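Format notes (please read before filing issues)

Several people have asked whether sequences and C-alpha cells are stored in separate files. They are not. Every record keeps both together, in the order shown below: the sequence lines, then the C-alpha cell lines. Line labels are part of the format and must not be stripped during preprocessing.
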Amino acid sequence: MGRGRAKAKQTKVARELKYGSHDIDLARLREELSAGDRLARNDEADTPAEESADR
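Then the structure lines:
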C-alpha cells in the first residue's frame, strides 16, 4: 500500500513539467553549451598528440 500517494505526487510533478511555464535563460544555456564544445575540442586535440608521443 501507499502507492497512491507516490503516484499522485509523480502525476503532479509531470503535469507541472508539461504545462508549467518555465523561464529559460537562453544566454546562460548558450554559454554552457559552447563551453562543453570547447572542452570536447580540447580533448580531441590532445588525443593525437598523446598517441604520437607514445610511439
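For reference, the curators noted about this record: The chain has a mean pLDDT of 81. The CA atoms of residues 2 and 51 lie 57 Å apart.
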